Amino acid sequence: MPIDTTTDEGATAPAAPAGSATARRFARVGFLGVLKASHPVPGAAVTLLTALLAAAVGLGPVAGTTAVAAVAAGQLSIGWCNDRLDMRRDVAAGRLDKPLATGEARPGAVTAAACAALLACVPLSLACGARAGWVHIGCVAAAWSYNLWLKRTPASWLPYAVAFGLLPVFLTLTLTLTSPSASPSPSAGWPPVWLTAAAALLGTSAHFANALPDIDEDIAGGVLGLPQRLGRRASIATATALAFASCTVVTLGPPGPVTLAGRLLLGVTLALCLAALAAPPALARGRMPFLIILALAGADAVLLVLAGHALPGG
Hints:
314 residues; disordered N terminus
């Protein structure tokens, strides 16, 4: 069967003969383009963090794999939804890093992939238990609300805070489904408030960091979330402050004395914050602040995993 090469804009390219080397090459390039449109790096980072937290709280192999699969499906749907909705703006801006703008991926294929991933996310989430499942579905819904609407408003930070803040809740509620000693109380399985707050602060910091590389293009394209309204310098300061606050909460929140690892990571975080804030204007416009804030997020994620012993079953 010949490859359908009709785009959403009505342009049609010649189809390659079925089974030919050219057809196989187009299929391979199309698959890679769709994969790139899923925002694979941030999606993989969130999925990896989920896997580490799942191990830290004591989820078994089956429950842990199911929870990680649910998060992976949700992240794929979010990334594909984002790129599909941004396609026209990315084409107008000449974005060479966006597969839909360069023709590496077909709009219909990305739309289908986003819907398929979202449909897979629902049963995978509910397989972790009704309470845990609906919490995770709420996380994904918050992220889709960002793509569909909130990214262009001053409340652009809110879906990140909600989705990241509820991630530990999803995992600890999943644990109550698999733990023989789980209490039937409605409050059973909920993590301590400090952990939810630390995760929400980390997610909000990630929003400001994620906006930095494209902040000028977003402003030109009319995407005016909170980072774009504040500007580059203020967004760098906000991202670093939130990341440091998250590290502080997760270091001081657990009962008992602060561990040596916690003190060391808190010191590293403070040093990275100061480096990001002290960047000269020429470097502040490059990727250095973004990379520093990613390192901050990494240190914070390590602290979250180390704090797994404070969760039920950890």
